[in-house]
Amino acid sequence: MSKLRVAVLGAKGRIGSEAVRAVEAAEDMVLVAALDRDDKIETLTETDAQVAIDLTHPDAVLDNLAYTTTHGIHAVVGTTGWTDERIAQVQDWLAKSPATGILIAPNFSIGAVLTMQFAQQAARFFESVEVIELHHPNKADAPSGTAHRTAQLIAAAREKAGCAPQPDATSTALDGARGADVDGVPVHSVRLRGLLAHQEVLLGGEGETLTIRHDSLHHKSFMPGILLGVRRVVDTPGLTFGLENFLDLGN
Ligand SMILES: NC(=O)C1=CN([C@@H]2O[C@H](COP(=O)(O)OP(=O)(O)OC[C@H]3O[C@@H](n4cnc5c(N)ncnc54)[C@H](O)[C@@H]3O)[C@@H](O)[C@H]2O)C=CC1
Ligand SMILES: O=C(O)C1=N[C@H](C(=O)O)C[C@H](O)C1
C-alpha cells in the first residue's frame, strides 16, 4: 500500500515540531514538506502533498486552507481561533472542491475529547457550570479553542434540556473577574510558566460539586489524534469539526 504524503505547516513550532517527528515515525506516512512562516506554500503542490497538517496561528490558518482546499489537498487543522464566520468561509471553499476533506479539531488529545464529552453529558444535571483553562504563557489566544468548544457543547446540552440560566448574584465586579461569557457559560483563562495545556470543568448543584479535569503534560499527547485525523480525512470529504467524529464513542 502506498504511503500517505503528508506536510506539516508550522513545523518549527511547539506542536508542529512534534508533529514532524510523529509523521516521520509513522510507517504508513511519508513527510514530504515541513514548512514554517517564511517558506512558500506552493511547496505543497510541488511535493504532491495529500494532507497538510496546520499547526500555525489563527492569523495564518485561513490563507493556508484557501490554498490547500483550492488545490485539493486535505487538511488536518489544530490551529485555534474558529468563529462561525471563519467556518462558513471554509465551507464555501469546500463547496467548490467537494472531494477535499478538512478536519478541524480544537484538541487532538483523547483525554481532552473525553472531557468535552463528559462535560456535555453532565451539564444538564447541575445548576451551575464554569470552565477554567490553564496554559503556558506563550499561547496566542484566550480562551483556548478547547475551552471555547467545551462551553459551547455545555450550553447546547443545557438549552436542549431546558435548563434555567445559571444563578449569579454578582452586582459589582472588576472587568474580567467573572471570565469570558461563552453562550452563558463563564470561561476563565490562566497563563502560567510551567504549564502546558490543562482544563477543569466545574459543575455545582445542591450540596455537591463535580470536577472534570484534564492535563496535557507533553505535546506527544496530541500525536495519536493527529495521525488518526490524517488517516481518516483522506476518505472523509467536507468539513469535520472535532476529533470525536473519528472516534467510536458510542453516542
Ligand atoms: N488542536 C490541538 O490539539 C492543539 C492545537 N494547538 C494550536 O496550534 C497552534 C500552534 O501552537 P504552538 O505550536 O504552541 O505555537 P508556536 O508559536 O510554537 O508555533 C506556531 C508555528 O507556526 C509558524 N507559522 C506562523 N505562520 C505560519 C504560516 N503562515 N505558515 C507556516 N508556519 C507558520 C510559526 O513561525 C511557528 O513556528 C495554536 O493555535 C495552538 O492553540 C496547540 C496544541 C494542541
Ligand atoms: O496552544 C496550546 O498549547 C493548545 N491549544 C489548543 C487550544 O487552544 O485548545 C489545544 C490545547 O489546549 C493546547
UniProtKB/TrEMBL annotation:
CDD domains for this protein: DHDPR_N
Residue positions of the active site: 135, 139
Enzyme class: oxidoreductase
Compartments in which it is found: Cytoplasm
EC number(s) from the headed UniProt entry: 1.17.1.8
Residues bound to (S)-2,3,4,5-tetrahydrodipicolinate: 136, 145-146
Reaction(s) catalysed (UniProt annotation): (S)-2,3,4,5-tetrahydrodipicolinate + NADP(+) + H2O = (2S,4S)-4-hydroxy-2,3,4,5-tetrahydrodipicolinate + NADPH + H(+); (S)-2,3,4,5-tetrahydrodipicolinate + NAD(+) + H2O = (2S,4S)-4-hydroxy-2,3,4,5-tetrahydrodipicolinate + NADH + H(+)
Main location class: cytoplasm
Residue sites binding NAD(+) per the record: 10-15, 36, 78-80, 105-108
Record PANTHER family: 4-HYDROXY-TETRAHYDRODIPICOLINATE REDUCTASE 1, CHLOROPLASTIC-RELATED, DIHYDRODIPICOLINATE REDUCTASE
Job of this protein: Catalyzes the conversion of 4-hydroxy-tetrahydrodipicolinate (HTPA) to tetrahydrodipicolinate.
Protein name: 4-hydroxy-tetrahydrodipicolinate reductase
Organism: Streptomyces polyasparticus
Gene from which this protein is expressed: dapB
